[in-house]
From TrEMBL:
PROSITE patterns given in the database record: ANK_REP_REGION, ANK_REPEAT
UniProt name for this protein: Uncharacterized protein
SUPFAM superfamilies: Ankyrin repeat
Domain of life: Eukaryota
Amino acid sequence: MRLLHTKEFELYEFGGRKVPGYAILSHTWGNEEVSLQDIKTNRAVNLQGYEKVSKACLVAAADGFDYVWIDTCCIDKTSSAELSEALNSMYRWYQEAEECYAYLADVPHNSVNRVTGVTGPEFQKSRWFTRGWTLQELIAPLSVIFLDDEWQEFGTKSNLQRDISEITGIPGSFLLGDDLRHASVAQRMSWASKRETTRTEDLAYCLMGLFGIYMPMLYGEGERAFIRLQEEIMRVSDDHSLFAWRSTEDHGGILANSPAAFANSGNIIPVSPAYAASSPPTLSSRGIHLSLRFINDGQQGRGLAILHCTEIRKERMRLALHLRDVFLTNEDFVREQSTTLKLIDMEDINPSQHPLTSLYVRQWHPTRNRNWEGMEKCVLKLAGIDAQEAASRITKFDSNCDLSDGLIVMNMKAVPDGLLGRLVVLCRDGNLFQILLSKYGKSLSADISASTTDLQHIQDPNVLEKEGNDQDRIVKVLSDGQHVHIAIKKRVLLLRGERCLTGVVEISYSSTLKGVWLEHIAILEKGIREKTLLSYAAKRGLKTIFEHLLDREGIESESKGDFRTPLSWAAEGGQEEVVKHLLERGATLESKDKDGRAPLSWAAGSGHEAIVRLLLAKVAALEEIEKNIGDRKPLPRAGWQRLLPGTKVESKRNDGRVRRYWLMSEDRYGRTPLYRASMNGHIEVVKLLLEKGANVNAAIEDGSTPLHRASMNGHLESVKLLLEKGANVNTATKDGSTPLHRASYNGHLESVQLLLEKGANVNAATEDGLTPLHQASYNGHLESVKLLLEKGADVNAATRYRSTPLHRASYNGHLETVQLLLEKGANVNAAIRDGLTPLDYASKNGHFEVIKLLAATQEGG
């Protein structure tokens, strides 16, 4: 980083651990700000912004600082690489500053009473509280000194904390240094909901530090930046409050367009999944994949999806989203009624009637002006047969329903007699053709025709009535039992053209009802995860299509962009016969996709024990063959060290070990197949991987092990097995969190008990001083709190900010937990650094029963 010398007025560069102590300036930008180039060329003195820089240096120097960091002149903004690195590092730079000066140019001198600390309207309405970047500049530093328009100090973050909390909506504990991970995603977003930035993208970039996210800056992407931020948050957090927003923009996506959507989400907190473990949200081109309970209201696929979050003081309730099943397949959904979130009483929900459902929800749909020119259009209507003979269920669309970039479905008023339906396709090059669906007995057929007869109902001025049958456009009908799969392509079926398959329409014929049922429309360019028809068929076990395509596509064909092979898709989908077929054809076991995941990782994470067993058996068979062949020519030294760390370079027969290593190795996020199986509670897969030599203590980047994740998600049998196989019960993450911390935080009582029986340190503390008792108390897990106390947990353990378990239970209003802690000797008068007691915390959040209990205890003490 670059620092400005407060006396010499020169810029110096520092790296690594050599950065000296420095002060940092927070301000709002004005006219003629001084840039790095201005400092180097001595143009700075002629600019309006020079006074701000010189005054900042004077204030910092007076407090004994030789260096100060100012965003206007300490970053070379002409270098996009440096700017991106600086924006990613900025939260840390503010956090590590020894002092932060917040210069409020619109707060007049003497508008704040320096004796009483009473602030006036000028402070409360300061522009500084409305800007996006100043949010992290307020939260990150431990100390902030506020300066008025004459650069005179009128208060600090500590002594003005109550006023700042009222202005910003940020609880005082987080202003004064509490770990931001204890605030939900929705709460943190709400703090930024009323803030503004000059550039749209900065609404996302200014929040990266609050979530510990690092991502490249792409100015010009607009609202997409905030979507990328939310996608990155999903990779590191399972917090469903990310989806708990309200907006008048009913765009159908589950991700918000901006922080403004979280304006009323400041009271939303995550809760542990009730009754059963839930898989964490994952991102795909098909949408956000979630495991939720879906309550269908019987109105054309509409219903409520229950999130694992609630409002403060409504612990038995859960928030739910209004979703619509787009294709009536119970798989693909869009969000509706985005202005509301429904509160559901979980005592009214029967888990057996509403089990966890695996579903995809569209993540985002940008608002844009429709440009008809160059778009591909598809017209669909299943009709034209005797109504008394047919039972047709048609997915309801608006008159013009935009399903995906490049595909429009429009209703038609007429279909030629004798036809079940028709698909009319207009390609970007203007060629028009139609597919006619006919029924003969119990089977369906499709014919391609370039005729434009009866297309006058398409209300599009750009439709070109071209004649001539284009043989490059193929419709392939493949019969598979009672299902007919019709694949529509712009070029050729086998995707040898430059673009991917336009779409797949699956039409199912019912032998009991004389009709056709539209089951699914999927746009392979963006609508679903699989980017090719081959991978689509491999994951779903569509044997006829799969075998038809395999010879021409090849077993190692990769999906464009994500590098996933058919074996990878089949392993994820649990398609045992397809996996066997691919292995017999010589598919590469250790091939990895863009996220570093091998087929074994996908099978293990999805809990497909048979597939895991197949893949490992294939490795064993190959190793046996290699053993019988004898010595092999060794790889070069660098090759072995790259492929298999720790393997002796002189080894002449290590191919099998290399293959096993790659199979069992971590992905780009550090997660091994064992980690993924453990996090999802797939006990049989966990057992199998451990039997085959998986490293039970392998840790991801933050230090979490399979035991951490199994404990966190309450997978008791997995926890038990991992411990039996040598998992370190007291292993800690980089921030000092142990498996007992994770289990206690989520209230998994049986896991807490087992970990303690196996020697878990009941008073283990994180870097911030949090113990398992702090975690259980925060979420009001009464039985876990009891157990921890019985096992010797320190009832008055204090964090680095002097917060005790009683503070945390009082903050969230957990009355029974507060009562138990007091009975066990908790200090009712314990105060954090700014002097706040548990009573102050309870009062701030309006927990009246807790307030009465704490006040009575103080009086009686």
